[in-house]
Protein backbone atom coordinates (compact mmCIF):
# COMPACT_ATOMS: atom_id res chain seq x y z
CA UNK A 1 0.00 0.00 0.00
CA UNK A 2 2.84 2.36 0.79
CA UNK A 3 4.36 1.73 -2.63
CA UNK A 4 1.03 2.24 -4.36
CA UNK A 5 0.48 5.50 -2.48
CA UNK A 6 3.89 6.77 -3.44
CA UNK A 7 3.27 5.87 -7.07
CA UNK A 8 -0.10 7.60 -6.99
CA UNK A 9 1.44 10.75 -5.53
CA UNK A 10 4.17 10.66 -8.17
CA UNK A 11 1.65 10.37 -10.97
CA UNK A 12 -0.36 13.25 -9.56
CA UNK A 13 2.75 15.39 -9.33
CA UNK A 14 3.69 14.60 -12.90
CA UNK A 15 0.20 15.43 -14.08
CA UNK A 16 0.32 18.72 -12.19
CA UNK A 17 3.63 19.60 -13.81
CA UNK A 18 2.26 18.78 -17.26
CA UNK A 19 -0.80 20.93 -16.70
CA UNK A 20 1.34 23.78 -15.40
CA UNK A 21 3.63 23.63 -18.41
CA UNK A 22 0.63 23.51 -20.75
CA UNK A 23 -0.91 26.53 -19.04
CA UNK A 24 2.40 28.35 -19.21
CA UNK A 25 2.69 27.59 -22.89
CA UNK A 26 -0.80 28.86 -23.51
CA UNK A 27 -0.04 32.01 -21.56
CA UNK A 28 3.08 32.60 -23.58
CA UNK A 29 1.15 32.12 -26.79
CA UNK A 30 -1.59 34.47 -25.62
CA UNK A 31 0.99 37.09 -24.74
CA UNK A 32 2.74 36.75 -28.10
CA UNK A 33 -0.31 37.81 -30.06
CA UNK A 34 -0.69 41.20 -28.36
CA UNK A 35 3.06 41.67 -28.75
CA UNK A 36 2.83 41.09 -32.47
CA UNK A 37 -0.09 43.46 -32.64
CA UNK A 38 1.92 46.09 -30.78
CA UNK A 39 4.79 45.73 -33.23
CA UNK A 40 2.40 46.19 -36.15
CA UNK A 41 0.79 49.16 -34.45
CA UNK A 42 4.20 50.72 -33.91
CA UNK A 43 5.06 50.27 -37.59
CA UNK A 44 1.82 52.00 -38.53
CA UNK A 45 2.31 54.82 -36.04
CA UNK A 46 3.13 57.55 -38.54
CA UNK A 47 1.08 59.88 -40.67
CA UNK A 48 1.31 62.11 -43.72
CA UNK A 49 3.06 64.86 -41.76
CA UNK A 50 5.85 62.46 -40.80
CA UNK A 51 6.30 61.29 -44.40
CA UNK A 52 6.30 64.86 -45.73
CA UNK A 53 8.85 65.88 -43.08
CA UNK A 54 11.29 63.16 -44.13
CA UNK A 55 10.77 63.69 -47.86
CA UNK A 56 11.40 67.42 -47.54
CA UNK A 57 14.15 67.39 -44.92
CA UNK A 58 16.37 64.96 -46.86
CA UNK A 59 17.08 67.37 -49.77
CA UNK A 60 17.19 70.27 -47.30
CA UNK A 61 19.95 68.50 -45.37
CA UNK A 62 21.67 67.48 -48.59
CA UNK A 63 21.98 71.13 -49.60
CA UNK A 64 23.46 72.00 -46.20
CA UNK A 65 26.05 69.26 -46.71
CA UNK A 66 26.77 70.65 -50.18
CA UNK A 67 27.32 74.09 -48.66
CA UNK A 68 29.63 72.57 -46.06
CA UNK A 69 31.61 70.83 -48.81
CA UNK A 70 32.21 74.21 -50.46
CA UNK A 71 33.82 75.43 -47.25
CA UNK A 72 36.60 72.84 -47.42
CA UNK A 73 38.85 74.95 -49.65
CA UNK A 74 37.24 78.38 -49.30
CA UNK A 75 36.50 79.08 -45.64
CA UNK A 76 38.58 80.37 -42.78
CA UNK A 77 39.37 78.14 -39.83
CA UNK A 78 36.33 79.00 -37.69
CA UNK A 79 33.76 78.61 -40.47
CA UNK A 80 35.60 75.50 -41.68
CA UNK A 81 35.21 73.87 -38.26
CA UNK A 82 31.51 74.77 -38.16
CA UNK A 83 30.96 73.35 -41.63
CA UNK A 84 32.55 70.07 -40.52
CA UNK A 85 30.16 69.90 -37.55
CA UNK A 86 27.17 70.55 -39.81
CA UNK A 87 28.23 67.85 -42.26
CA UNK A 88 28.94 65.33 -39.49
CA UNK A 89 25.52 65.92 -37.93
CA UNK A 90 23.33 66.07 -41.01
CA UNK A 91 24.92 63.26 -43.03
CA UNK A 92 23.75 60.53 -40.60
CA UNK A 93 20.35 62.23 -40.25
CA UNK A 94 19.88 61.96 -44.02
CA UNK A 95 20.53 58.21 -43.81
CA UNK A 96 18.14 57.90 -40.87
CA UNK A 97 15.31 59.63 -42.74
CA UNK A 98 15.92 57.53 -45.84
CA UNK A 99 15.61 54.42 -43.67
CA UNK A 100 12.44 55.76 -42.05
CA UNK A 101 10.77 56.19 -45.45
CA UNK A 102 11.92 52.72 -46.49
CA UNK A 103 10.54 51.18 -43.29
CA UNK A 104 7.23 52.94 -43.86
CA UNK A 105 7.09 51.75 -47.47
CA UNK A 106 6.92 55.36 -48.65
CA UNK A 107 8.48 57.03 -51.68
CA UNK A 108 11.75 58.89 -51.18
CA UNK A 109 10.28 62.07 -52.65
CA UNK A 110 13.17 62.55 -55.08
CA UNK A 111 10.80 63.60 -57.87
CA UNK A 112 9.09 66.26 -55.76
CA UNK A 113 9.72 70.00 -56.18
CA UNK A 114 11.79 71.16 -53.22
CA UNK A 115 12.64 74.64 -54.47
CA UNK A 116 10.00 76.38 -52.39
CA UNK A 117 11.08 75.00 -49.03
CA UNK A 118 11.88 77.47 -46.27
CA UNK A 119 15.56 78.36 -46.22
CA UNK A 120 16.34 76.45 -49.42
CA UNK A 121 18.98 78.28 -51.48
CA UNK A 122 18.37 79.08 -55.12
CA UNK A 123 20.78 77.95 -57.82
CA UNK A 124 21.99 81.53 -58.10
CA UNK A 125 22.75 81.72 -54.39
CA UNK A 126 24.67 78.45 -54.51
CA UNK A 127 26.66 79.72 -57.50
CA UNK A 128 27.45 82.95 -55.66
CA UNK A 129 28.62 80.99 -52.63
CA UNK A 130 30.76 78.71 -54.78
CA UNK A 131 32.31 81.74 -56.48
CA UNK A 132 33.38 83.45 -53.25
CA UNK A 133 36.45 82.88 -51.11
CA UNK A 134 38.06 83.85 -47.82
CA UNK A 135 36.25 86.39 -45.67
CA UNK A 136 33.64 86.98 -48.36
CA UNK A 137 32.82 83.27 -48.37
CA UNK A 138 32.70 83.12 -44.57
CA UNK A 139 30.23 86.00 -44.32
CA UNK A 140 28.02 84.75 -47.12
CA UNK A 141 28.12 81.17 -45.82
CA UNK A 142 27.03 82.25 -42.35
CA UNK A 143 24.24 84.48 -43.62
CA UNK A 144 22.86 81.82 -45.93
CA UNK A 145 23.26 78.99 -43.43
CA UNK A 146 21.37 80.94 -40.79
CA UNK A 147 18.40 81.20 -43.15
CA UNK A 148 18.83 77.56 -44.11
CA UNK A 149 18.82 76.47 -40.46
CA UNK A 150 15.80 78.64 -39.68
CA UNK A 151 13.91 76.87 -42.46
CA UNK A 152 14.87 73.48 -41.06
CA UNK A 153 13.72 74.50 -37.58
CA UNK A 154 10.34 75.60 -38.98
CA UNK A 155 9.93 72.23 -40.74
CA UNK A 156 10.90 70.33 -37.61
CA UNK A 157 8.47 72.30 -35.44
CA UNK A 158 5.68 71.54 -37.91
CA UNK A 159 6.14 67.78 -37.58
CA UNK A 160 6.33 68.16 -33.80
CA UNK A 161 2.85 69.69 -33.97
CA UNK A 162 1.28 67.40 -36.55
CA UNK A 163 3.32 64.18 -36.70
CA UNK A 164 2.72 60.93 -34.82
CA UNK A 165 5.92 58.93 -35.42
CA UNK A 166 8.04 58.74 -32.24
CA UNK A 167 11.22 58.43 -34.33
CA UNK A 168 10.36 61.42 -36.50
CA UNK A 169 9.48 63.50 -33.47
CA UNK A 170 12.71 62.57 -31.68
CA UNK A 171 14.74 63.52 -34.76
CA UNK A 172 12.82 66.78 -35.14
CA UNK A 173 13.57 67.72 -31.52
CA UNK A 174 17.25 67.01 -32.11
CA UNK A 175 17.23 69.18 -35.25
CA UNK A 176 15.58 72.06 -33.41
CA UNK A 177 18.01 71.91 -30.48
CA UNK A 178 21.14 71.55 -32.62
CA UNK A 179 20.32 74.07 -35.30
CA UNK A 180 18.97 76.75 -32.97
CA UNK A 181 22.26 76.51 -31.07
CA UNK A 182 24.19 76.81 -34.34
CA UNK A 183 22.06 79.77 -35.44
CA UNK A 184 23.02 81.61 -32.27
CA UNK A 185 26.65 80.62 -32.81
CA UNK A 186 26.64 81.94 -36.38
CA UNK A 187 25.05 85.24 -35.34
CA UNK A 188 27.87 85.59 -32.86
CA UNK A 189 30.47 84.85 -35.53
CA UNK A 190 28.92 87.61 -37.64
CA UNK A 191 29.15 90.01 -34.69
CA UNK A 192 25.42 90.23 -34.13
CA UNK A 193 24.05 91.02 -30.69
CA UNK A 194 22.04 87.95 -29.64
CA UNK A 195 21.47 89.02 -26.02
CA UNK A 196 18.18 90.78 -26.76
CA UNK A 197 15.27 90.05 -29.07
CA UNK A 198 17.50 89.69 -32.11
CA UNK A 199 16.30 92.90 -33.75
CA UNK A 200 19.72 94.52 -33.63
CA UNK A 201 21.30 91.44 -35.13
CA UNK A 202 18.73 91.46 -37.90
CA UNK A 203 19.49 95.12 -38.65
CA UNK A 204 23.22 94.37 -38.73
CA UNK A 205 22.58 91.51 -41.13
CA UNK A 206 20.62 93.80 -43.45
CA UNK A 207 23.37 96.42 -43.30
CA UNK A 208 26.00 93.82 -44.14
CA UNK A 209 23.83 92.57 -46.96
CA UNK A 210 23.49 96.07 -48.39
CA UNK A 211 27.21 96.67 -48.20
CA UNK A 212 28.11 93.40 -49.83
CA UNK A 213 25.35 93.52 -52.39
CA UNK A 214 23.46 90.58 -50.85
CA UNK A 215 20.17 92.30 -49.98
CA UNK A 216 18.17 89.22 -50.99
CA UNK A 217 19.92 86.97 -48.48
Automatic annotation (TrEMBL):
Disordered: region residues: 180-217
Keywords, sorted A to Z: Signal
Organism from which the protein derives: Nocardiopsis coralli
Domain DUF305, first and last residues per copy: 50-190
Annotated protein name in UniProt: DUF305 domain-containing protein
Bias kind Acidic residues: ranges: 200-210
Pfam families found in the cross-reference section: DUF305 (PF03713)
Signal peptide feature range: 1-22
Amino acid sequence: MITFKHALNGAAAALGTTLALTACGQATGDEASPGSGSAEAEQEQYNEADVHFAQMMIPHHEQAVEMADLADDRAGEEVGELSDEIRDAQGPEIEQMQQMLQDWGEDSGEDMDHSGMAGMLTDEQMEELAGSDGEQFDTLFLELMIEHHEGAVDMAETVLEDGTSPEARELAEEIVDTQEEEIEQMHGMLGHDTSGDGSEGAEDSEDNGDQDGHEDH
